[in-house]
Design a protein that fits this description.
Strand content: 5-15%
Number of domains: 3
Order of helices and strands: HHHEEEHEHEHHHHEEHHHHHHHHHH
Number of strands: 7
Helix content: 55-70%
Largest sheet: 5 strands, mixed
Shape: elongated
Distance between the termini: 7 Å
Oligomer: single chain
Radius of gyration: 28 Å
Low-confidence stretches: 330-348, 350-388
Amino acid sequence: MSAMNLATVVATIYSGATYTDIADFFKIMDTNYISERRFYDIQSQYILPTIATYYEEHMEDVLREMKGQCKPITLMGDGRSDSPGFSAKYMVYSFMKEKTEKIVHVQLVQNTECSSSVAMEKVGMERALDALLAQGLSIETVVTDRAPSIRKLLKDKYPSINHQFDVWHVCKGLKKKLVSLGKKKGMEDLLLWTRSITNHLWWCCQYCGQDSSVLKRRWLSLLHHITGEHEWTVDGETYSCSHGTLTGDQCLRTIWLQCGSPSFKALKSLIENKSLIRDLEQMTLFKHTGSLEVYHNVILKFAPKRLHFTYDTIVAAQTGPLQWRARQDLGWNAADVMELQLIGREIGDRLKNTGSVRRQVSNVRDEVGDADADEMGYVGGRDACSDQ
């Protein structure tokens, strides 16, 4: 096998491109490229096995590091479907350690293993959590969204783990509801307050001092502030807004809601929603999965949701943790990390056995000389990209 053929396949995969993308590129340039069959042969025989081997070693290193610390850990968890909507074929559930932002476990689930596509997230999380607990890790807190299936699973099967809700997801859901209300006739003024209301929820969670009663009181205080009332009494105690005294100009420029107006009634119903008030008790530690969402965007580079991938390729797409670790710890990109592994591990051994690379480089050096060959950066020959 030509080394250039291998190099082009490696570059295609690590750049997040597909065979079709690169083949079209070479076609426009009127340049030969390897056939589709040859491309996927190289991918399945050399690239995917090496990725799988290094990925497993990487995850073992991460687990070994956590075991050595001997401290309870906080994990952020979230699932990622392979396609939009509710008919996904694969679900990848990922756990990230909060302090180090390192991926500690990735669990792949196929819809044939569950009753439905929606049920894959619960199955993926359960398997991932069981695998980590089986390693002897002490898990203190798990941060997820407010999915009912996940909530019930943690409550029933893992009661000793503190389940916290992701503040970012809650704010995102709240914003959608506010925008939906603001589009109704007579409630347009709610749109002016959407950002301030979501920011207020974020602030309440961040500065509640891990006290659920303080968090609830500050959240409900919004109903006073939004009508222009900045000092009020509840059960004989006087409270006031934390923003300080507003100037006359600020008061005049702000469009306050009127008590009893349709906008205020709709907002009051939303803020005092029993489900939301109850969930605030699981938001006192101010946890969010922003880093995990960024990691899932890294995965999108290798496995876009608009394209279909086989099971093996979905597994290989979990090179995301490798690129994520490289960005966090080493300052390298994924190509740097994986190239070192490819040279030193399985692919290098297989190519060494065939001797094809040595023969091609040797032939070139005989023809043009060592110095010229080095200057040309010759690897596989003039026809290296043709199908062989």
